[in-house]
Amino acid sequence: MMFRVNGEQRSWYEGMTVADLLGDMGDSQHYAVVRINDKHVSRPYFEKTLIPDNSEVFLIPLIAGG
Amino acid sequence: MIMEYKMDTIKTFYYDRPIIEKGYANQTLSIDISVPDISVKPVDEKMKDVFIGGKGFDLWLLWHSVKSTTHWTDPDNAICIASGPMGGTPLYPGSGKSIVTTISPLTGSVIDSNVGGYFGPYLKFSGFDALEVKGKTEKDIVILIDGVDEKVEILETSGLPDDSYDLSAILTEHFAQGKPRHISVVSTGPGAKNTRMGCLNFTWYDLKRKRARYKQAGRGGIGSVFADKRIKAIVARWDTVKADTNNPANGNALKAVGRKHAKEIVKLDPKQNEMATIGTTHLVTIMNDFDLLPTHNFQYGKHPEAVNIGQEVYRPIFDAGYDGCWMGCTVACSHGVKDFVPLTGPYKGTKVFVDGPEYETIAGCGSNLGIFDPHTIIEMNFYCDAYGLDTISVGTSIAFAMECFEMGLIDETHTRGINLSFGNRLAALEMVHQMAEGDGFGLIVGQGVRQMKSILARDYKADPHIMQDIGMEAKGLEFSEYMTKESLAQQGGYGLALKGPQHDEAWLIFLDMVHNFMPTFEQKAEALHWFPMFRTWFGLCGLCKLPWNDIVPEDNKDTPEPAKVMKHVEWYAEYYTAVTGKKTTPDEIIRMSEGVYNFQRIFNLKMGFGQRDHDDIPYRAVGPVKPVEYESRRERYDKELVEKHHVDITGMDTEEKNRLLRKFREALYEELKDAVYKRRGWTANGIPTLETVRRLGIDFPDVLELLKAHGIE
Q1: Would B584 disulfide with which of B67, B268, B558, B588, CB 3.0-4.6 Å?
Q2: CB pairs < 8 Å spanning A and B
Q3: In sequence order, what E strands does B197-259 have?
């Protein structure tokens, strides 16, 4: 049971949220948005959003807009 | 396409094309269409040192063309277009931008607008670092700048179509001599004639799709000046662009740094924002999630239907393929929609190709109008481009009219029977068609928010005070599409921007509100110095800013200043050095921009603006105007009153709390002005000091005289 974060394999566990992942990585403040497969998830939803097994996660350092 | 049209040459100017030296042609092209007269002006070392190129050159030419009393319709108002020393480099991503300046119909002062497409590089390679066109004619004209045959021509025309969509296709074919990629057309459409918010379309030729595509110099009504002069189009013709066409000082160093940046984008864009696939559409749902997506004329920041106009919807709608608006760009974000069939207007029922939509158009012509139908937004996008209208000003102006309608400030007797309720898709489209025709209520909306406020108060007795609060314009320019209520830094990013509230000076919302990188006033002021200066530099050099901070290095977050993406800033310094041969550093980049930035501020002063009062913004940009807006974020606002301002809100109703909140927030914005002016080296009235202009080398005699007239000596 694995998933990928920015192309690198990580172990997956049942009930893992985006907030859990960033906490495990020590990166909770640097990312405002992550993409799980093709779906964007923003920080207000990090604690509610589960990471599915075998998913592809990208951490998006969104500092720019316009 | 079969069309009867005529083009007769009325003036030809032959010239010897100079060799490009380290990114410069070392001369500019001046055309007075009234006479008509065509001439060349030299570019000296001082001009390059102080103004660098691009917007800097434009401003210098415009400064000498206009008087303080020049109105946008006067013949001495010039349209200036320039690339920059790095413009036209195919080896470095995002190096094909042009900057356009003129005196704006919306603001009455200097406007600048940056745009992709091939024109700026082709102009330079044809022998001119910048172009200024002034004068007016009574007959429609086309200007041809032919770098291959070394001639400039003015042609009188008749029978050409009015809209940019057909016009640019016909002119591309007409001048191509079988090589359409060698042509770039600048044109506008009928909307530009009949409104103050006309845009210019700049083409680039799409080899795969075999058609002229276009990008827009949208802001400030430059297209309306173009149409008022009766210029149908300006066409540039150039040959094949090669790696050394720009003749950089150090080609190997350029290749090395360009390759690094291009490869990084190819590797990281798919992991980050996917701009090469979905453009800027990802911002829609992200802004919505953070309560920052303007909906219903900037009243609210989110809507449950926003997902219907986000990246997941547009991804399959976009026509897949390479979409770079300049050669070699690996960001390639200029996506489009193939075989779109409009439901209204002159192209109703026919297949067209639509360039866009980008985030600003989706938010401006979608959510801010209460429209969450992706196809209506595409149709608005198409007609705005074809008619030569700025989608941002169109969206923000219609949003204002819709809110006035819903508040009962105007009714159907004023709109000539059109129900302008939020969400009325056909009414929004009808407004766009009316703007193009110069007819109906669209004629009033097309004057922009500032003029609309006066017209509705004068003719329909609408309440001017509430319209001042909800009319989203500053300096006369309509706001672009970000909510600023909860980010003081972004209020400054918009309000303190030289041309008006456009996000291309400083986009600080996430840094301020989400990442909390700048909690103090001093930090906000520093950001409102550094970011506008660095972003100004892109416009001096012929560059797009997207490669700088929309795709960032993987280790960026571990650097001391992640917001600045300093690794890329250093690459840009290397890039500038490699092209111009002038050794530069990140600090020197900021100093270059400061000179031009302060000169533009002083230009505003010359035109009767550029002081503290002109940096005011409507209260809707600062906080909730109506109780219903307060209620939508009650928890946040109550907390602010209690914890930040130590107010006992027990027993207070919403209106009372809102009045207090307004007092505090307006005071904070004034404090921000003080901090930013100080950091920028300006007086408390927002005018550059003598020391500042001397330090930056812009202490020209007429600048000193102007400052003296304002008590600065």
Answers
A1: B588
A2: 72
A3: 200-206, 211-217, 231-237
